[in-house]
Amino acid sequence: MFSRDKWNEIIESLSSNWFRTILTAFGVLWGIFILVILLAAGKGLENGVKQGFGGMATNSMFMWTQTVAKPYKGLPKGRRYNFKTKDVQAIKDNVPGLQYVSPRNQLGGFGGTNNVVRGLKSGAFNVYGDYPEIINQQPMDITSGRFLNYNDLNERRKVAVIGEGVKTTMYENDEEVLGSYIKVNGVNFQVIGTYKKKSTGGGNSEEDQKEIYVPFTSFSQAFNMGDIVGWMAITANDNNSITALKSSIFDVIKENHTIHPEDDRAIGNFDLFEEYTKISGLFTALNFVAYFVGILVLLSGVIGICNIMLIVVKERTNEIGVRRALGATPWSIRGQILLESIFLTIISGMAGIILATLVLWLVNYALAAQDSSEMMFINPSVDLVTVIIALLILVISGLLAGLIPAQNAIRIKPVDALRTE
């Protein structure tokens, strides 16, 4: 029950020596400030790294062929082989839990010879033969027109979706892009869309915009690839991990191409989910370190409050003796001391949270004025759960800070207390 007299007594006790109270409260204020800032900084770094994945489907892996390392069934080691289109269907049929299996072929590349011509202009670009699902695995924003669809694939249409970087290189500012033609290694493709790929934070964002996507079937036909697949992008559904499924995928490939079951070097792969899991684990560790350091700093403030409450109890020995003589129960004395400790801890802690919030607002305000597409530190913040956890820590800290002084207070005998000067 609310008692005005009790709260007046608390305010009077804490305000009797303002300078001492402020210095004591600063320890808790600084501790909770450090805790919130560390957690927010970790979140800002996490946001930046996640942006670095460019919105990619992280439950994915990329798979390509390598030299066979072991002889098997009369076939020698050191031989090379290629994925085939039948491998794609075999993977879909034999490995449940996959969402996308996208075969890919590639032509050209950054630093290569000019492979794309339009009029008097030419350039060297990555040209990919893809399935429509690739836009879900490597997301991009379609800035005009459309992306590839299955009609393009089934009818082997010679159409292309070009990046904004290709558009800038091959077209004038006022030229119409959609419906125009570009020549890739001597084969004409009609441009049906333009895209801007989401940043991958890997330092190649400019080159990411200089890519061309054409239907997989058209690519194979135009450049005499037959049923060869250069590499694959494979994504598991939400209920499965691609890391857990990739051994089954490798088994299908090994069986189809007569590769030794224990030959782990014949198939190259990059497991994006595995890398993403490592990074997520890193941020979990960073959060743990932030809590550990913040709570240690906060503990020093709690010790300060504990000391000051011990001094307050000693200064109020006579008062406590009189209250005990008048019939005050040990619990009422203990509760008064604990309430003062909790009140001082929460007030100073809330001031720390407010100060941390102000600092984070200023940092975010400064970051908002800059281009964040290539930044590795974005929107440092804390969520409501973190604030609630901080408040719980404050309450527990207040209880701990007042526990020893409260116990000392109820040990004082009324007769001894009244004898003190």
UniProtKB/TrEMBL annotation:
Matching InterPro entries: ABC3_permease_C, MacB_PCD, Macrolide_Exporter_MacB
Subcellular location(s) of the protein: Cell membrane
Residue ranges occupied by any ABC3 transporter permease C-terminal domain in the UniProt entry: 292-414
Pfam family, one: FtsX
Bilayer topology term: Multi-pass membrane protein
Annotated ranges, domain MacB-like periplasmic core: 21-249
Gene Ontology MF terms in the entry: transmembrane transporter activity
Main localization of the protein described in the UniProt heading: membrane
Transmembrane segments: 21-41, 288-313, 342-364, 384-404
Keyword Transmembrane helix: yes
GO cellular component terms, semicolon-separated: plasma membrane
Alphabetical keyword list: Cell membrane, Membrane, Transmembrane, Transmembrane helix
Family of the protein in this entry: Belongs to the ABC-4 integral membrane protein family.
Protein name (record): Putative ABC transport system permease protein
Organism whose genome encodes this protein: Mesonia algae
Classification lineage: Bacteria, Pseudomonadati, Bacteroidota, Flavobacteriia, Flavobacteriales
